[in-house]
Specification:
The complex is a heterodimer of chains A (299) and B (350). Chain A is of the alpha/beta class and 299 residues long. Chain A has one domain: Glutaconate Coenzyme A-transferase. A ten-stranded mixed β-sheet of chain A has the order 4-3-2-1-5-10-14-15-16-17, sandwiched between helices. In chain A, strands 7-6-11 form a three-stranded mixed β-sheet, with no helix packed on it. The longest helix of chain A has 12 residues. Chain B is α/β, with parallel strands linked by helices. Helix content of chain B is 30%, strand content 17%. Chain B is globular. The chains are: A alpha/beta (299), B alpha/beta (350). At the A-B interface, helix 1, helix 4, strand 9, helix 5 and strand 12 of A face helix 4, helix 5, helix 7 and helix 13 of B.
Chain lengths: 299, 350
């Protein structure tokens, strides 16, 4: 007999909180848990659709149970049981504190300055954390046209801190984006036609000091220095610094590397697999638990 | 403004009649709901395609199954939006729309989600424009990238199209830096799908509001599609649960399952496999044509289209009366677990 969810809940504290070994987890799992670690228990989080949503739900189940999650369609403090496929999925609204609409989320919560952490995706990023989700090539005649901003540029500039999750390739990690949807720590000042620190362009506004703080990719985690430039913080297990440099389109600062990215623990993987994506929607390829754990879980 | 001097009487009519009377070629339309997942008034756009409506200027804060289906028929001429996607986890980008755009068959004006929300808010409260900390330094506010301006459409001839995409100015009151002034969004027609509507037009939904109230107040004409028409007297027992007052409503269409394959919370869930099928079909023109023949042109009516979806699928999608969504639909590779309390609440409270 398969265990009930209540029985599985009782098991959580019995699962060792020790790092899993290589081969016992897949990369998207590691990435989801990396996102989760960015969330603090007192954060008000505004997350975009996709892996960011999975990551913050994981955080809510592991390290930040009181973090307040905002989903842009109007949901405030959803307490999700079944993973949402959209930011307007009624699953995300389960037991939420209040329900409104876009004016609530972008006006009352975001522009009012309540949001402490934004979590977003992107198609390409520049070395100051500016993100492109609009197009590749000429704006009028693009070789690829993506979705465009959505909430990316609003959240990415008005949340106190923002974390981005991006697939790392040379053509996606750029010195300068062809199109900047969400400006990073340096951006274009269209009034004076100058490339400037965001703090100067946004001077006097409540959001001059808000911006990207973390980038999570399939190869590494990044942070930003005082000048707003991205640097390599940790490399994921099995990835070398050289490989990372090869997959970056500019001269990457690798002087402040703090080491290897922490592997997910068995307990974190258990929560992610059994409670966050139990329906196998986001992470359909799962690896087996080690034999001792399998015995404990299947009982 | 004063576009309405007195209350008007909303009329109950069929889907065909509502589209015939209110959807006109070349008009500016705003659709309710959110992406392809929540309360899309799809039946209306589906019927627009069947009646061959053309050259539509869609003004929306993002794509949906409505824009997907209109674009599939080549009916969109101008798309003022902030997100050209539609299906999120069931197919993020509208691939067919990317094709239309790249072929130069559509004018696309980019804004951001918050900016479009503010534009509709301005339209709803009768303000001509609204200040917003829209992201300075973003190419969204690069003066070069004004698509309607480039097309020569900001000449004031169309009263619905603003003479500028945006304007930047320093806060003259509190010295809080630069803000962007955004023009009000005011569509010719707003179409929303709700759970219940009284015979007089008072409308109610459950679940998220998205921007449905704002688009209704911002538009000249409002068509409400609903799962059921209920007595006004019933809706007035709990008026705090109603969102749209009847005096802005022009037409009421009772259209059960009219938001399929999106969801109507507490009525039915979104059909994830069907949405994935739409995404797959949009990847090449031949499949797209077959999809349209199968699902748009061959059914005799919307009722016939839903009959084609089938009773089994409808049973799977029927919403749980306490959760508001279905736990029977297979969304991924495993069925939804039976749960009574979210893990975070069970372990740490609220």
């Amino acid at each position: 007999m398969a265990k009930t969810m209540e029985q599985l809940m009782d098991l959580i504290d019995k699962i060792p909180d020790e790092p899993a070994k290589p081969g016992e987890f897949i990369l998207p799992e590691l990435m989801a848990i990396q996102i989760a670690h960015q969330v603090r228990d007192d954060d008000i989080v505004f997350a975009g659709t996709g892996l960011p949503m999975v990551g913050i739900m994981t955080a809510n189940f592991i390290n930040a149970p009181h973090a307040l999650l905002i989903y842009e369609a109007g949901i405030c403090d959803g307490k999700t049981m079944h993973v949402p496929m959209s930011v307007c999925d009624h699953r995300a609204a389960n037991l939420c504190s209040s329900l409104g609409g876009l004016v609530d989320t972008f006006g009352f919560y975001l522009q009012q300055g309540f949001v402490s952490l934004g979590f977003l995706g992107g198609a390409a990023i520049d070395k100051y954390g500016g993100v492109n989700v609009t197009c590749i090539g000429d704006y009028w005649k693009p070789t690829h046209r993506f979705t465009g901003s959505g909430g990316n540029s609003d959240i990415g500039t008005m949340a106190k801190r923002t974390a981005f999750i991006i697939l790392q390739e040379k053509r996606r990690f750029l010195d300068r984006n062809e199109y900047t949807t969400t400006p990073g720590w340096w951006c274009w000042d269209f009034k004076t036609n100058e490339w400037k620190p965001k703090r100067e362009v946004w001077k006097g506004t409540p959001f001059a000091d808000s911006g990207p703080v973390v980038v999570v990719t399939n190869m590494a985690n990044y942070k930003f220095d005082k000048n707003g430039e991205i640097y390599l913080d940790t490399f994921h297990p099995g990835v070398t610094v050289d490989q990372i440099k090869e997959n970056c389109g500019f001269a990457l600062n690798v002087k402040n590397v703090s080491g290897e990215t922490k592997k997910p623990t068995y307990r974190e993987l258990f929560v992610l697999r059994e409670f966050v994506d139990a329906e196998l929607i986001f992470l359909p390829q799962k690896v087996e638990y080690p034999a001792s754990l399998k015995k404990l879980i299947k009982g | 403004m004063f576009k309405r001097g007195a209350t008007k009487k909303a009329q109950i009519m069929s889907l065909e009649e509502a589209v015939k009377r209110y959807a006109k070629d070349g008009m500016m339309v705003a659709f309710g709901g959110f992406t392809a997942f929540n309360r899309n008034p799809i039946a209306f756009s589906w019927e627009m395609v069947r009646q061959g409506k053309k050259n539509i200027h869609v003004i929306d804060r993002h794509g949906s199954a409505c824009t997907w289906i209109l674009n599939a028929a080549g009916a969109i001429k101008i798309y003022e939006t902030d997100w050209m996607g539609w299906g999120e986890l069931a197919g993020k980008l509208d691939v067919n729309m990317e094709r239309t755009y790249k072929a130069g068959k559509m004018i696309l004006e980019d804004y951001s989600h918050g900016a479009m929300a503010m534009r509709f808010l301005a339209g709803a409260i009768g303000a001509p424009f609204i200040p917003y900390y829209a992201p300075q330094g973003s190419d969204l506010y690069n003066p070069k990238y004004d698509a309607l301006g480039k097309a020569g459409m900001r000449d004031g001839k169309n009263p619905k199209i603003a003479k500028k995409k945006f304007m930047e100015m320093a806060d003259p009151f509190f010295n809080t830096g630069n803000v962007v002034l955004l023009p009000a969004a005011r569509a010719d027609l707003a179409v929303v799908h709700v759970a219940q509507c009284g015979e007089k037009g008072t409308a109610r939904w459950r679940g998220i509001g998205t921007i449905d109230k704002e688009i209704c107040f911002a538009a000249d004409k409002v068509v409400i599609l609903c799962e059921e028409i209920v007595p006004e007297s019933e809706l007035r027992k709990n008026p705090e649960d109603n969102q749209i007052p009847y005096f802005v409503v022009d037409a009421i269409v009772e259209c059960p399952w009219g938001a399929y394959p999106s969801s109507v919370p507490y009525y039915y869930d979104y059909d994830a496999p069907f949405l994935r099928g739409m995404d797959a079909a949009s990847r090449n023109p031949e499949d797209m044509k077959k999809w349209k023949d199968d699902w748009v042109f061959s059914p005799k009516s919307w009722e016939d289209m839903i009959t084609k979806v089938g009773a089994k699928r409808m049973l799977d999608l029927r919403a749980d009366s306490t959760l508001g969504y279905s736990t029977r639909l297979l969304r991924g590779k495993k069925p939804a677990p039976r749960m009574t309390v979210p893990l975070s609440v069970a372990r740490s409270g609220y």
